[in-house]
Amino acid sequence: MFRSILFSLFLCSVMTGFSQIREKPVISFATRIYDFGTIREEVGKVSHDFVFINTGKTPLVIQQVTASCGCTTPSWTKQPIAPGAQGKIAVVYTATGRPGIFTKTITVTNNSEENPVQLTIHGSVTPKPLSQSQAFPVDFGTVRLKSTLIPIGNIRKGTIKSIVVPVLNASNTNITLSFGSLPPHITVTTQPTTLAPGKESLLKISYNSALTDDWAFRNDPINLIVNSDTKGSKKNVLHIAAFISEDFSKLTPIQKRVAPTATLLTKEVKLGKAKTNGTLTGSFAIKNTGNSPLLIRKIFSDCNCISYQLPKAGIASGQTDNIRFVIKAGKLTGLKIENINLLTNSPSTTDLQLPISWETVR
Fold first, then answer.
1. Which of 28, 193, 286, 331 is the most buried (most CB within 10 A)?
2. What is the CATH number of domain 132-245?
3. Which fold has domain 257-361?
């Protein structure tokens, strides 16, 4: 009888031990997501503590905490957390240099049943105000601008496009703005014309593509004159860039069927060798496989070393024309590869590209 009682007590003790071994801690967070809301970039660092409680029956150990980004730095309770006790994961987010919306995750490795645990922070960082030189990096002395390049972008022939460009008075006196001789397709007005110190004026630039015979990429330099000082404002040059293309959107199905079609019969031009600063002459063949006269609006390339001779008239249906061009080799030796681009009045083959190559030698 006594042995039986001892054996029962032994089994009870063993079962209790196994139960304790199997039992794990429980990590319980009040929330696993934190919204920082809107943060000003100049604030620098912001932080939040994710507080948790060990709701299990054995000690909880946080083994490692890692963040998804170097901009997020975690720290945590290192000692074991007893049942019923609390600990925290402190998270610091660095907003400096990171304007915009952000979402970051923090992975918590631990000895609980739920391993790992993932926490999330998110928010939005508003960029810090730019300094005068940062906001208007182009320095024309008394006036500053964001850029000397004013992009009109793509504009359909016959249409008008307008953009507004800010200008800052960087002097300590009032200034007036005016412009030198403008091409007929560009008009510029200032609002206001007289600009107080430290204030901005808006240049309203209107581009009327119908008033120029040019096509494709066009760059118009204009002179910004301050206080009517033409000589002193000579270097205040702005470049108005546009790409003028044909508007085929209003063509009827019948007009599209009878339209011209440009077909390059030459697929590539290899010109051989040229001495430094020498010239090479090449040509390529283009055929009109459509049903009405083909017009080549413009031939152009990224390299100003290529000159062209446009056909004097349109290319009739079924006819082929050979277009000559001249390459002026520069001082740099080696293999050169450029593209010749053609803009046509063909709705289906408006833009064509032809690769040409040559080698410049001494």
1. 286
2. 2.60.40.10
3. Immunoglobulin-like (2.60.40)
